[in-house]
Amino acid sequence: MEVQFTPDIQARLDQLANETGRPQSEFVKDAMAGYFHDLTRVRELLENRYDDLKSGRVKLIPGEDVIARLRAKSEARRSQHS
24 Cβ partners below 8 Å, 6+ apart? Predict the structure, then answer.
Protein backbone atom coordinates (compact mmCIF):
# COMPACT_ATOMS: atom_id res chain seq x y z
CA MET A 1 0.00 0.00 0.00
CA GLU A 2 1.22 3.47 -0.78
CA VAL A 3 0.01 6.55 1.03
CA GLN A 4 0.51 10.05 -0.32
CA PHE A 5 0.39 12.99 2.04
CA THR A 6 0.01 16.68 1.42
CA PRO A 7 3.35 18.48 1.32
CA ASP A 8 2.67 19.99 4.75
CA ILE A 9 1.94 16.63 6.38
CA GLN A 10 4.91 15.03 4.63
CA ALA A 11 7.22 17.80 5.87
CA ARG A 12 5.97 17.34 9.44
CA LEU A 13 6.44 13.58 9.18
CA ASP A 14 9.96 14.05 7.77
CA GLN A 15 10.86 16.45 10.57
CA LEU A 16 9.50 14.16 13.28
CA ALA A 17 11.35 11.16 11.86
CA ASN A 18 14.59 13.15 11.66
CA GLU A 19 14.24 14.51 15.20
CA THR A 20 13.42 11.17 16.79
CA GLY A 21 15.29 8.72 14.60
CA ARG A 22 12.14 6.63 14.26
CA PRO A 23 11.03 5.49 10.81
CA GLN A 24 8.13 7.35 9.26
CA SER A 25 6.24 4.07 8.94
CA GLU A 26 6.10 3.74 12.73
CA PHE A 27 4.37 7.11 13.05
CA VAL A 28 1.88 6.18 10.34
CA LYS A 29 1.17 2.81 12.01
CA ASP A 30 0.73 4.49 15.41
CA ALA A 31 -1.57 7.11 13.92
CA MET A 32 -3.71 4.51 12.17
CA ALA A 33 -3.93 2.37 15.32
CA GLY A 34 -5.08 5.41 17.31
CA TYR A 35 -7.57 6.35 14.61
CA PHE A 36 -9.13 2.89 14.54
CA HIS A 37 -9.26 2.77 18.34
CA ASP A 38 -11.06 6.13 18.45
CA LEU A 39 -13.36 5.16 15.58
CA THR A 40 -14.36 1.96 17.37
CA ARG A 41 -15.12 3.88 20.57
CA VAL A 42 -17.22 6.46 18.74
CA ARG A 43 -19.18 3.79 16.88
CA GLU A 44 -19.89 1.95 20.13
CA LEU A 45 -21.01 5.18 21.77
CA LEU A 46 -23.31 6.03 18.88
CA GLU A 47 -24.78 2.54 18.77
CA ASN A 48 -25.43 2.63 22.53
CA ARG A 49 -27.05 6.06 22.29
CA TYR A 50 -29.22 4.89 19.40
CA ASP A 51 -30.28 1.86 21.44
CA ASP A 52 -31.08 4.16 24.39
CA LEU A 53 -33.21 6.41 22.18
CA LYS A 54 -34.94 3.50 20.49
CA SER A 55 -35.81 1.86 23.82
CA GLY A 56 -37.06 5.11 25.34
CA ARG A 57 -34.42 5.20 28.11
CA VAL A 58 -33.28 8.57 26.76
CA LYS A 59 -35.50 11.31 25.40
CA LEU A 60 -34.52 13.80 22.73
CA ILE A 61 -34.34 17.45 23.72
CA PRO A 62 -35.40 19.95 21.05
CA GLY A 63 -32.57 22.18 19.86
CA GLU A 64 -34.35 25.33 20.99
CA ASP A 65 -34.55 23.95 24.54
CA VAL A 66 -30.85 23.12 24.55
CA ILE A 67 -29.97 26.64 23.42
CA ALA A 68 -32.26 28.17 26.04
CA ARG A 69 -30.70 26.03 28.79
CA LEU A 70 -27.17 26.96 27.74
CA ARG A 71 -28.03 30.64 27.61
CA ALA A 72 -29.60 30.46 31.06
CA LYS A 73 -26.51 28.73 32.49
CA SER A 74 -24.24 31.28 30.86
CA GLU A 75 -26.29 34.17 32.20
CA ALA A 76 -26.32 32.64 35.69
CA ARG A 77 -22.53 32.31 35.67
CA ARG A 78 -22.09 35.87 34.46
CA SER A 79 -24.38 37.08 37.27
CA GLN A 80 -22.32 35.17 39.87
CA HIS A 81 -19.08 36.80 38.74
CA SER A 82 -20.45 40.33 38.66
Answer: 13, 14, 16, 17
Q: How many domains does the chain have?
A: 1
Structural domain of 14: 7-80
Q: Is residue 1 part of a domain?
A: no
Report, as an integer, the average pLDDT of 51-75.
95
Residues 6 or more apart in contact with residue 16 via CB below 8 angstroms: 22, 24, 27
Q: What are the pLDDT digits (tens) for 4-41?
A: 999 999 999 999 999 999 999 999 999 999 999 999 99
d(CA 13, CA 24): 6
